[in-house]
């Protein structure tokens, strides 16, 4: 198996002179296509349990209902669709939400400006995207500090250079040195110019969603954006059972434009949902049903993803906890519910509560990554870089997690049962007491036989000690610097680059800075 | 769900005065019964693939065969059983090994001197035992150094105090300050007196196996040992396809005494087996079939475990690598093969190649622990404390891994689908926009709603920083000291204790020390 689909391919749409292209030939940027699973999912719930949860979710929607806050237009849409609307409470007769969800596609393609990096979201696919949202960054040298636009750009560059990452993501950290009402412009500009992987749109205000669509039209062409999905954006549900107007504005802008949304309950178990797994799954399903149904009221056929951001809680401190067994069970169960609903599924990530990229962080993250893979997740946000419960984007952890994503690729590829995979020739050649290192089969296969880390240390103890007895953070720090040093921007037509910069400059100049 | 089955229960067989019992009442040693899975296994191979591997393994046994080295008695047994024996090579007609394996039990009970700590090995059970074999120990203060008998006793004490650990294990580290030909006596004495969990016997020489049986007869009574399994010992196969005489001696002693053996290929993929997963699985199955069949020639019905110690290899350095996707696939596939053979399965562990209990160690270990659980492993050696490819028993990592074993317990318990688990009352009580922290359902359930760490840090950043910004190793170091400080030996009849000490003293005095 060859994990890396290609090296150094450049944007087809990109311009640039022949001289520059020649100069760039030396740059080898490895990348992989999204994962296509060839292993089964782990179905933790049996048919009876699934039926109970589905029936309970319908009961929740019918008897308890959901709230669409400060949103008369949404209430009108719901009334017209046959819901029972009283005040801001929307109660859905059993079956209505599921029926409305039926128009949402089971999978869709999100286009990248480099078509080699298009991703298919749904089915057996797994698309990996980096951490989203932290206001802080941390690295070993600088410690923990507020994130800046320079950090943001660095993380986009690391994403572009990370071969196991399929998606450039969205708010890889909050650039707190840029005005709140303008930072989305700089963030989008960074994703569009410093990377050629697919990206996410802004969701923090209606006009910022519009900007996201407009800038995408510059990058891809207006016609292309009308006809294709070029953004997947994150719409959180205010759990329990509440849909806030800003998020619904964003959903409306994107769904209307046929752009994809993750419709995602945001749950700290025991606070925003019941303390039990089955209760949480019921609430997650009810919320997603209502949210996806609403997206289809806006535009039938709009691409959406069944989201589930779920953590458990430390009942002593109220802190969210990650990599826990309850979160694992919810992630697994929600995957089954998503597949029965015929929707792509977003969950999991390299979640951790630790303040440092230490063993705690790695245990928690590995638990969550493994379970995410086996849950049938199709879109994994936060697949690398997440630290301290999502408050921090960590440079070193980004590299550490991103390396582990390679493990997932290989595991998901399944077991090669070809004649070469069966290796009977090798067994015959070597026989009892021999060794396989030099045999023909090994020689023919060793290059791609095993996943290879780009980070972890396998050296003998003495060598490792002589080289400074470095831990994983130290090794990752070296790699961060190397990757940022090696980074080269993917080609982009200078006309498009200028048009994007003009748009950003014009929008920034139009209004004063706001920091709230 | 209440994970902990009991607290402070004492050996029923133990004597001691009423005064001492009263004095001990204050000691609360939590423990859990072995895991009984209520979640499915992850079956990575389909029926067709399994059939291919099984057919290939039979071909290996028939055409290539296995070697029983320096072991005329074994060759005679094989000849009598219908094998084709030429020199030391034993070729088994198709079906013979599988037929002989049929007398091995699908599950068995290993008794502990405290009957509350008996374990059932097989079926849906998972018994967790600590690291086995390292000549070195490491802790944050003392660094890496040769292990001593004091270290050994410390690790036995930590095992006794670790609530998620079901088994005291065997060579938790090599006590290198005790003569090679006598250290098994001190090791067994430590397991028997400092812990009351089940333990493993020595396998390094026939007379040491006999000592293990004899000491067990002192502890349990000779009749009890004749009729019950009180040891599970580790018999490695010299992969590829070779059975060495020392290991076969050990198997013979234990199987004859109806004591359990793990029959375990020891494979660094690419060196002792083909570089492919399917090829390795074929070899593993062939080796286990031959080894288990041989155990049943010694004594039909002797309890055995289908073992698979499998790592991949770094093709650059030749170092074994852990927590890799190839090892995961083999672990998963071998579990399916073991279940089809109707045998208990041993594999996985908190494996890592890292020199330090850092993020690398934790990623690798978590990968292996998660896959071990989902592979249907019934006996997991090395479930905590393993460091540096098995060269080092780490005090801190022991604590870190042992804490993660709690995650496995809870995940394996499955999802509670009772009315309380469904939590419809909570959903009705709280409704849209509320929160669940104070609701009746949460109040009634919060105490056992979520797995609780005994180690990891969930504190707010500021608190954590004020307390010294400790990483996981530092937190684990504190806990090591506390557990060793809190440790109290489980009651043991003074007569038995004296008899055990006498046996050790007598055997030690009988021969001079040997350090090879």
| Total number of beta strands of chain A | 20
The main sheet of chain A comes to: 5 strands, mixed
The percentage of residues in β strands of chain A lies in 5-15%
Tell me the span between the first and last alpha carbons of chain A.
Answer: 50 Å
Biggest interchain interface, per-side counts = A-B, 127 and 127 residues
Question: What oligomeric state best describes the polypeptide chains here?
Answer: homodimer
Helix content bin of chain A: 40-55%
SS-derived structural category of chain A: alpha/beta
Q: Which consecutive residue ranges of chain A, at least 5 long each, have pLDDT under 50? A: 1-27
Mean pLDDT of chain A: 94
Tally of separate helices of chain A: 19
Shape call of chain A: globular
Radius of gyration of chain A (CA) equals 23 Å
């Amino acid at each position: 198996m060859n994990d890396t689909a290609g090296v150094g391919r450049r944007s087809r749409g990109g311009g640039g002179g022949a001289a520059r292209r020649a100069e760039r030939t030396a740059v080898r940027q490895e990348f992989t296509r999204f994962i296509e699973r060839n292993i089964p999912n782990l179905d933790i719930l049996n048919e009876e349990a699934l039926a109970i949860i589905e029936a309970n979710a319908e009961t929740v929607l019918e008897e308890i209902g959901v709230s669409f806050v400060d949103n008369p237009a949404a209430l009108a849409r719901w009334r017209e669709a046959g819901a029972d609307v009283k005040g801001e409470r929307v109660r859905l007769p059993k079956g209505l939400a599921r029926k409305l969800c039926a128009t949402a596609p089971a999978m869709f393609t999100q286009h990248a400006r480099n078509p080699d990096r298009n991703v298919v979201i749904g089915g057996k696919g797994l698309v990996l995207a980096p951490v989203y949202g932290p206001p802080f960054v941390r690295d070993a040298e600088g410690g923990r500090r507020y994130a800046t636009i320079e950090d943001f750009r660095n993380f986009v560059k690391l994403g572009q250079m990370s071969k196991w990452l399929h998606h450039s993501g969205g708010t890889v950290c909050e650039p707190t040195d840029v005005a709140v009402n303008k930072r989305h412009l700089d963030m989008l500009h960074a994703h569009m110019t410093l990377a050629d992987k697919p990206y996410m749109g802004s969701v923090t205000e209606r006009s910022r969603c519009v900007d996201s669509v407009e800038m995408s039209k510059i990058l891809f062409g207006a016609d292309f954006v009308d006809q294709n999905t070029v953004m997947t954006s994150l719409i959180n549900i205010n759990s329990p059972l509440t849909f806030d107007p800003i998020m619904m504005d964003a959903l409306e802008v994107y769904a209307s434009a046929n752009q994809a949304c993750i419709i995602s309950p945001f749950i700290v178990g025991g606070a925003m949902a019941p303390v039990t797994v089955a209760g949480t799954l019921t609430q997650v399903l009810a919320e997603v049903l209502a949210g996806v149904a609403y997206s289809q009221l806006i535009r039938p056929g709009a691409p959406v993803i069944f989201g589930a951001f779920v953590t458990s809680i430390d009942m002593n401190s109220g802190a969210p906890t990650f990599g826990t067994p309850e979160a694992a069970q919810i992630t697994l169960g929600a995957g089954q519910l998503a597949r029965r609903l015929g929707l792509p599924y977003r969950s999991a990530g390299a979640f951790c509560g630790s303040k440092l990229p230490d063993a705690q962080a790695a245990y928690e993250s590995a638990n969550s990554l493994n379970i995410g893979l086996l849950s049938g997740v199709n879109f994994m946000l936060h697949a690398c870089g997440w630290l301290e419960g999502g408050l921090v984007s960590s440079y070193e952890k980004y590299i550490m997690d991103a390396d582990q994503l390679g493990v997932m690729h290989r595991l998901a590829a399944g077991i090669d049962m070809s004649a070469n995979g069966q290796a009977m020739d090798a067994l015959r050649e070597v026989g009892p007491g021999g060794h396989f290192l030099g045999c023909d089969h090994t020689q023919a296969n060793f290059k791609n036989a095993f996943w290879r880390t780009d980070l972890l240390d396998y050296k003998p103890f003495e060598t490792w000690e002589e080289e400074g007895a470095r831990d994983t953070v130290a090794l990752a720090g070296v790699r961060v610097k190397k990757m940022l040093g090696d980074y080269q921007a993917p080609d982009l037509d200078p006309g498009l680059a200028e048009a994007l910069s003009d748009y950003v400059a014009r929008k920034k100049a139009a209004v004063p800075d706001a920091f709230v």
